[in-house]
Write a structure and sequence with these properties.
heterodimer, A: 280 residues, mainly alpha, B: 317 residues, alpha/beta, six-stranded mixed beta sheet, four-stranded antiparallel beta sheet, 11 helices, elongated
Chain lengths: 280, 317
């Protein structure tokens, strides 16, 4: 395949078709059952942190900005990313093709004059937009609520004169990238497995013990790249096996490349997909 | 490249679901006009239609639609509309959203999408209900909106799996008129149906399937003539059927003659219908018979179904 050949492909048509698939998926998404779990999971940190902050205010516990930063970093990296975003993305992305198969509506896409790779891209993009939006609001909301005990002045100072805005942007960026990485993997699971629950749980196990994995194995996990981009790094676990540290820029590129590779594999799987609803 | 001779070609196509046979060694060439696909439940009709549209991949063999391999959806579905039997729709969409949304996948400009959506809704008489959610539609409305979606991009090949299900008689007549319009434009229309008397009215050709095999295919009359073990039945209405009956046995191939109870006609079974028609002309002139009508009594899809598939297949109406 030469570059002029690639340049002659109908990119403009594919872009329009991808946008059409995304638009249709987002419209469907509002009524889809698979949106319920991500929505509830995205609400959870807001509710938890709001409750904790209110309790702190009520009991008059003094707020320490550094401790709050550390506390949120632990919450974000251990619970928000590894549990909420992980399972939120699993619920959304594994259902991208499986959901249509179970609802017996996938054939409408497969009967359109669209390359199946374009369908996969459009559907992925819609699910990514939905999850990234939900969890970005969740990350931003919980981050700000965590600083509620600082009071209005303290919060303004933290955001406008301190590192607050940078942290906020960092957490939202990491959240979007987490949705990208996990989303690509779960899209593939949904296309490969009739029941993706076991593969999802296996991946959850692997991601949870990521710190124990050897360096080369760490590189094929999503959380490895996400950790490198966290605005407030956590001290490594005493049991952790050390791996080469990676710069945030390289982490973004690595995660994007990882997502592209997984998407290509998914697209190849979708090209061979058949409609046999009775079997589902 | 599109085929100069527009047709759907299947070469030695088989489909197995694991060990279970879907269709076996099917070779067909479907020409423009209306072709009916007839067979009992489980005969392989839907499998064959899904193979023709790439929703299934053949275990063996090749399929081309208008000269385009069916595994090239981006090309083939510019020309093909498929109204499946699945009564399912993407959630939360109105009738017009449904048609518009999938038309956008063609990459057409928005103005054209809108014009085609309006036109398709008007053709199936659904303009008034277009703004309602599909979930609130009746079965007949859902059938019509599915049909509208299949014809919206003005396909040259229209494939319909049980399209008359759930339609009241008025809607059936309207829908059949649409099939006939599409076929009159030189398009290929394939209709799978259990409603044999309606299949009979609308189709030029028939494909009879049973147990995954194509039992017969071709023009209804041609297929009927090939069914030699069942002599052709011909109904003759005239003023003196007894005279006619006596002379009919000049024809060697006459198998049986039954006089009609009203004394104004007879039913003949013959292995040589063409020979009978020639003899009939001569007898009518020689005996000075007043002929009221001559028509084949079993030259239709229902009879072909009965003779070639019989009761083993189950439901057919």
């Amino acid at each position: 395949m030469t570059l002029p050949e690639i340049a002659s492909w109908p990119w403009r048509l594919w872009r329009r078709q991808t946008a059409a698939v995304t638009r249709l998926e987002l419209r469907k998404c509002r009524r889809a059952r698979r949106l319920v779990a991500p929505l509830l999971l995205a609400l959870l940190p807001i509710l938890i942190i709001a409750a904790v902050s209110i309790v702190r205010i009520v009991i008059g516990k003094p707020a320490n900005s550094v401790k709050l930063d550390q506390g949120y970093a632990v919450f974000f990296q251990t619970f928000f990313l590894r549990f909420l975003v992980f399972f939120g993305c699993a619920a959304m992305f594994t259902g991208v093709f499986r959901g249509d198969m179970l609802e017996k509506t996938l054939h409408y896409y497969l009967l359109a004059p669209v390359r199946r790779e374009v369908i996969a891209s459009g559907k992925f993009l819609a699910a990514l937009l939905a999850t990234a939006t939900l969890f970005s609001f969740s990350a931003a909301g919980s981050f700000l609520l965590m600083r509620l005990p600082l009071g209005r002045t303290g919060l303004e100072q933290f955001l406008l004169q301190g590192p607050g805005l940078g942290y906020l942007a960092g957490y939202v960026g990491v959240t979007v990238l987490a949705c990208l990485g996990y989303g690509a993997v779960f899209l593939l699971f949904g296309a490969l497995f009739r029941n993706p629950v076991l593969p999802v749980l296996a991946l959850f196990g692997l991601e949870s013990i990521n710190f124990l994995l050897p360096g080369w194995l760490k590189m094929v996990s999503v959380v490895y790249y996400l950790q490198a981009m966290n605005p407030v790094p956590l001290p490594p676990s005493p049991f952790a096996l050390m791996a080469d540290s990676i710069s945030p820029l390289l982490a973004v590129a690595g995660l994007a490349a990882f997502a592209v590779v997984v998407l290509v594999v998914t697209a190849l799987r979708i090209r061979r997909m058949e409609i046999i609803y009775a079997a589902d | 490249m599109m085929d100069a001779n527009p047709r759907i070609v299947l070469r030695d196509v088989s489909k197995f679901y694991g060990e279970v046979l879907g269709v076996n060694r099917v070779s067909l060439a479907v020409e423009p006009g209306i072709t009916s696909l007839v067979g009992p439940n489980g005969a392989g009709k839907t499998t064959l239609l899904n193979l023709m549209t790439g929703l299934l991949r053949p275990t063996e063999g090749e399929i081309e639609v208008l000269g385009i391999p069916v595994n090239r959806p981006e090309r083939v579905f510019r020309h093909v509309g498929y109204c499946t039997q699945y009564d399912a729709f993407p959630k939360g969409l109105t009738g017009s959203d449904f048609i518009r949304g999938f038309l956008r996948l063609h990459g057409l400009p928005e103005a054209e999408v809108e014009a085609l959506t309006r036109d398709a809704l008007a053709r199936v008489n659904m303009t008034d209900a277009a703004g309602k959610k599909i979930a609130a539609y009746s079965k007949g409305m859902r059938q019509r909106i599915k049909l509208a979606q299949a014809i919206a991009h003005k396909p040259r090949v229209l494939i319909l799996d049980e399209p008359l299900n759930g339609l009241d008689p008025m809607a059936r007549a309207e829908v059949i008129a649409i099939f006939q319009e599409v076929a009159a434009d030189g398009c290929i229309v394939i209709v799978s149906s259990h409603i044999l008397h309606e299949v009979d009215i609308l189709s030029d050709r028939v494909i009879l399937m049973n147990h995954g095999y194509v039992v017969a295919e071709g023009g209804i009359h041609d297929v009927r003539e090939e069914v030699e073990e069942h002599p052709m039945q011909i109904l003759v209405r005239c003023d003196r059927p007894a005279v006619l009956a006596a002379r009919i046995f000049e024809l060697n191939h006459a198998v049986e003659v039954k006089l009609h109870s009203d004394g104004r006609g007879l039913l003949l079974r013959t292995k040589d219908a063409a020979g009978f028609y020639r003899l009939m002309n001569r007898i009518a002139v020689e005996e000075n018979l007043a002929m009221e009508g001559i028509q084949p009594a079993d030259d239709d899809v229902q009879s072909l179904y009965d003779y070639l598939i019989g009761n083993e297949g189950g439901r057919a109406s």
